[in-house]
Amino acid sequence: MSVVRLLLAHNGVNPNIADKIGRTPISFTSVAKYRDIEGMLLLLTDGNIDLNLADKDSRTPLLWATVKARDCDFMVELLLVSNNVDPNLANKDGPTPLPWAVQRNYALVVKLLPANARVNPNLIDEIGQTPLLRVAMKNWEAIVELLLAKCKANSNLASGNCRTPLASAVCNGHEKVVELLVADNRVNLNSKDNAGRTPLS
To answer: How far apart are the C-alpha atoms of 89 and 191, rounded to whole Å?
Structure first.
């Protein structure tokens, strides 16, 4: 029997008590490298547990699992099973789980997050960029393709200088990313930035 099950069976156990930095049991379990799937599922289905409690850095269990995704991507998948997990909560610096995964080129997590219909693929990060804009600038073709096809990301949302993902990819000479964006019939090919320049100019 799982030790988690034994503890949760006692009414005196409070599963939402945090440590000095604000992390709760579900927060620590979300980054566990060992696959205690039974324990994780028990925590996820216990009606007394707040699955969105953030620590002092405003990191939720899902954001922690995303941060540590190279070691425990399966925890991201388990957390997304629960309808009580809010995938759009950001930490104090701005990123939600999807932009965090995008920024670090975690393709597997980028595939997992959009499968949850509640994930907003167009949230602006701490520097005023959408996930699609950021990866278009970095020439991460696979992530661009995922965001366009699976996330249905808004391909026309611009940065603070009004530069769209297409304009950014053109400016940086990222030919394959330009090809992917031009093939998307939602893209405005003639959008203007703050200087009045289109992608072609």
So the answer is: 30
